[in-house]
Amino acid sequence: KAGVTQTPRYLIKTRGQQVTLSCSPISGHRSVSWYQQTPGQGLQFLFEYFSETQRNKGNFPGRFSGRQFSNSRSEMNVSTLELGDSALYLCASSLRQGQETQYFGPGTRLLVL
Amino acid sequence: KQEVTQIPAALSVPEGENLVLNCSFTDSAIYNLQWFRQDPGKGLTSLLLIQSSQREQTSGRLNASLDKSSGRSTLYIAASQPGDSATYLCAVRDYKGSGNTPLVFGKGTRLSVIA
Fold this sequence. Notes:
The complex is a heterodimer. By secondary structure, chain A is mostly beta strands. Helices cover about 0% and strands about 55% of the residues of chain A. Chain B is about 0% helix and about 60% strand.
């Protein structure tokens, strides 16, 4: 069974631009979560989607948004990029929300210049 | 607010040594605890998941224990190998009735196993 896939793997943007990252969960998984990883803050939760609905949201500004499609694929969008948005963005999927083991993708490394 | 701490931040050991990684959390009302491994620049690989009702889980050379009342978990790695070199992350999921809460991560322990 294929694992979690994320595209693109690497991205370079400039301040003020917007970016969309994509995540395809493991087949049959309906919950998708997004995390931001930086050297200073570590892994921080962004949001979780289940059945096309946002179920949880972390403490990030409104510039960070996401959605989930009927096939469970998910996208996250960051508008008006700032230098501090440079990070590894990780997506994780699980069968159901809440108590399940989460399986992570390889991440998208975003560099904002 | 749940906080997860991992000590030490970095560890270097000779090949073959048994070692213990520590994880502590401030709120003992957790649903489960998960240990992950992360190789440089890569995503996370799930190693072990311990439910709040369990005391330990084992997978091969790995053994994770959970003491919920004291807010501690340990990951024991037996007979370490250079391939074990990676960052090990501990994450807890708080209990909020529905179990519908996100993972809270520690900052990890960077392990180097020297051949």
